[in-house]
Amino acid sequence: MQFPMFVVSVAQLLKMTEVRAHEILKGEGIAVEYEESMGKAAFISHEWVGDGHPDPEFKQLSVLQDALTYMMSDLQQIPADGFTEVHCKKKPFSTSALRTQALCVWYDYFCCPQLGHQLSLSSSNLSDSESDLSKAVASIPAYVAKCSFFFALCPVIMSEELGKVFSPQTWAERGWCRMERTVHDLSKSDGWFMIKSWSEIELVASFGGAVGGAPGFGKFTVGSDRRKLAPVLSGALKCKLQTLLKSLNLQDYRVLLNMQNSIMQGLPAQELAEPRPGFASAKGLDDESLAVSAFMYQNGFELVQEVDDAGWSPLHYAALAGQTLVVQGLLAQRANLDCQTQHEQPRVGIAPGTTALTISCFAHHNDVAKLLIAAKATMDLGLVPPLHYAAHAGNSEGIRVLLDAGYDPCTRDFFGLHALAAACTFGSLDAIDELVSRARMSIKPSDVSIALSIALAAYGGTVDLVHRMLDLQADVNDSWSVPLMPTSVFEVWQAINTLEHQLGHDTSSTRFHYHAHGRTPLMVAVMCAQYEAAAALIAAGAQLDMVNSRQKSAADFARVETMPDFLRQAFEGDTTGCKRLASLATKYVEM
């Protein structure tokens, strides 16, 4: 920690009516240096919604005030979002942890020196402030580690001044927000919380950059910020690796060691960590054998055919790392080309039964994928095929590599879903376009409807994705039909969730499937608080008065007072706000 960690108590935060800079709050004794005796701290990650000011109209922070009040008084549990619940088996978070001690928050504008506020000072003082700001930025990993909670504050906000729409999806695109989320994932593995409105708060899993992607591929207002971010993130990685190694947590150590390339993608080159000292190579080794030997040493493996407690072999980890030379050497030493992982790996987001080829496609290591394909890797192994993982990760080049190698685009995953559904999970337009351009004939009308529904239920609910699906002939008022007798794994799973809900097991996932029969895309969007997508659907002609088989309309899936004004007005008969938001969001995407 190169700059002190300042915080603001929740009691002081709830009194605010405007967002004021650190220097002012510090002078008034509101922003104070954090000490553990003060209670627990929460890190607030957010996207600035003003030009040179984080929240000029106090729209975003007012949502935080109401959300904190709600969580610390009326709310008993924070549910996991549907994707996190299903894929990571996360249980709801008890809000009692927020009330056991006093709570304070770290919010960048309150707690870091603000150059804008310093412009009126002398140049020497400005230089000092710049130095302090750099130190505070470098200290962000330490601040995150000190905080007991991580909140992503990302309600849907329209800015007429900037001509933009801010949403959970735009938050996930920001480079600095991705960095904050990544260092949180490094310091803790128990998930974080997304605030979509004052009462729509969800627990989100910490694994593999599920929401968003590599920080270096994020959007930066100032391009030079990438250079600032690189050493900060690299230092956090090295620190975490040393901690894992000292605690002999080899499973997480190996995962993180070999994810360094993926995490640092898009940033200025940094020396990758090699935490295990003392490697001594045998004399006379060629480059390939030397690379394998060093890799095996750093990962703590002795045999090429070895499988660790997670069911991963050295070849799996080498594919995750994207080390082509190591993969080549392992194959030369008779590594099992089609070896499948034996257990799921939630820290990466990888299911059991996954091959090295699939892992390389998921991690955007397409040179490794080409090498494995050339070595005659079986391309259709696993519960989730490599094409689906490439689509899921937004790896459009990986999709091309697989299809060029003769991969069958009609291949379905374990649930019987097309790769288009995987591409829509995180709203990857590049992957969607690649699949449509190369494999259009393999996509059925039902695939498009399912893909849109999955996007709205997961993290892909943008205006642009809705438009893309409608271009593919998705019906904006499609009424989902659930068969009486399930015939696919997906339908069986849906029936099981419905039964669990009827038996009193009320979760995001069971509720979603319980109301499936007769639901429309708009109902899904509102149920999952995908407000931007809901506005796009309404602007495209979605009917507001349709009901599902349980006689529930879209408005019934959210309390009116929790919805943004543009949606509340739409359900009252005025769709102007939804049309304006859809127009602004589309304009932003095109820019």
TrEMBL record:
<keyword id="KW-0040">ANK repeat</keyword>
<feature type="repeat" description="ANK">
    <location>
        <begin position="386"/>
        <end position="414"/>
    </location>
</feature>
<feature type="repeat" description="ANK">
    <location>
        <begin position="517"/>
        <end position="549"/>
    </location>
</feature>
<feature type="repeat" description="ANK">
    <location>
        <begin position="310"/>
        <end position="342"/>
    </location>
</feature>
<dbReference type="Pfam" id="PF00023">
    <property type="entry name" value="Ank"/>
</dbReference>
<dbReference type="InterPro" id="IPR036770">
    <property type="entry name" value="Ankyrin_rpt-contain_sf"/>
</dbReference>
<dbReference type="Pfam" id="PF12796">
    <property type="entry name" value="Ank_2"/>
</dbReference>
<keyword id="KW-0677">Repeat</keyword>
<protein>
    <submittedName>
        <fullName>ANKHD1 protein</fullName>
    </submittedName>
</protein>
<dbReference type="InterPro" id="IPR002110">
    <property type="entry name" value="Ankyrin_rpt"/>
</dbReference>
